Amino acid sequence: MVNQIETNVWFQRKEEEKFLKKEGIAHEAWAPFAEGNNDVFNAPVLKEIGEKYGKSTGQVMLRWLIQRDVIVIPKSVKKERMKQNIDRDIHGQHKDQYVLKTEQLIPVLSIFSGCHLIKFLEASAEVFAAHES
User: Fold this and answer.
1) For 8, 85, 102, 106, which has the most beta carbons within 10 A of its beta carbon?
2) In sequence order, what are the beta bridge partners of 26?
């Protein structure tokens, strides 16, 4: 059995992940790239990790999910990104694969851990509206 739920660096679904594992349900990420919102492809910690390994920010996000045993089916209409998304290093099928270490993941885990993107954007809008008044 598979449950597809929104899962990405902005909305990490840690509690749901524990439940799914306990129940033997595969976790599939919907919107693994957070639909490109909140400038996720330019998040400094993700870019820094990508630069270290010669990977794109998107590849870092995919690797982070795959290391958590989350199924990913990334969407792209650009041929170059499609190639990046199926890179064997990302999926752990190559002898020279890179593995994100715990110390590298700590900043990723703290970006907006457990925060649903829509709730985050709504809260941000409320804060901005309050400052404009």
Assistant:
1) 8
2) 2
Question: For domain 2-132, which CATH number applies: 3.20.20.100, 3.40.50.300, 2.115.10.20, 3.30.2290.10?
Answer: 3.20.20.100
| Residues in contact with 48: Cβ distance below 8 Å, sequence separation at least 6, in sequence order | none
Amino acid at 107: P
3-class SS at 28?
strand
Full-model pTM: 0.69
Three-state DSSP class for 40?
helix
Q: What is the pLDDT of residues 74-101, one digit of tens each?
A: 877 888 878 777 775 655 554 445 566 6
Cβ atoms of 74 and 32 closer than 8 Å: yes
Q: Percent of the chain, pLDDT > 90?
A: 19
Rounded (10°) CA dihedral 46, 16, 67, 100:
40
Nearest Cα residue to 64 out of 26, 111, 2, 3: 111
How far apart are the C-alpha atoms of 34 and 116, rounded to whole Å?
10
